[in-house]
Amino acid sequence: MTVSLAILGGLLALDATSVGQFMVSRPLVAGTLAGWWLGDPGLGLEIGWILELFYIAGVPAGGSRVPETGSASVVAVAVAVSAGGLAGLALGLVAGLVTSELGGMSVGLQRRLVGNLFDWIEAGSMTAPKVTSAHLFSVLLDFVRGAVVTAAAVVVGSWLSGVLVSRWPLPHETTVALVLVGAAVHLGALLKGFGGWQSRRAVFLVGLVAGIVGAYL
Questions:
Q1: pTM for the full model?
Q2: Domain segments of the chain: what residues?
Q3: Diameter of the chain measured on Cα atoms
Q4: Is the dihedral of CA 78, 39, 51, 142 positive or negative?
Q5: Which of 61, 75, 140, 141 would be 153's cystine partner, CB 3.0–4.6 Å?
Q6: Closest C-alpha among 76, 74, 59, 77 to residue 16
Q7: Measured between alpha carbons, how far is 185 from 149 in angstroms, rounded to an integer?
Q8: How far apart are CA 10 and CA 102, in angstroms?
Q9: Burial annotation 78-107 (CB, 10 A radius, 16+ → b, else e)
Q10: Of the candidates 144, 118, 113, which has an alpha carbon nearest to the alpha carbon of residue 131?
Q11: pLDDT confidence of 197, banded at 50, 70, 90?
């Protein structure tokens, strides 16, 4: 199962930049795909939309380094399915958030490696076959990177969740509140992109009140 999840993580890594950018690597889609593959698409969708709230403000434009969401969503769902229950959901989300940061760091290392490769090509005789080979190698490297990150995170995350799930100290209501507050903080970062506090304070306050009421209900 880890091998198939690694392949899925590698393919989703390609969608982020190297191939297509069809938005399949967004958490909402990637989480649902992982859940479907593991036999629980509902849980995959649930984790996907929660992670989407965490990462909706991040745009992978140009050479900016952003957390990698595709492989992270696969890991989050795999850990949640492995651990089970609400504690498993929370631990899966934590595993996904950590994986996304590690994945983003690995993307930076990959870019430096690819940059060195093309510097070497430019220093010598540049031919069409050589450039094509370099492009194909870069795509393959991205796939392998995503697959390795996914596989390693699934193995480590599943093991840790198995140890921690029985010791989860928080009750149901507190766990749900913790997850939603964490997502809401990241979602609040969108306020700046829509004019900031001065122009959107009414909308923000209405959303804040609705969130508090919804949490109590």
A1: 0.81
A2: 2-169, 170-217
A3: 68
A4: positive
A5: 75
A6: 59
A7: 27
A8: 14
A9: bbbbbbeebbbbbbbbbbbbbbbebbbebb
A10: 118
A11: low
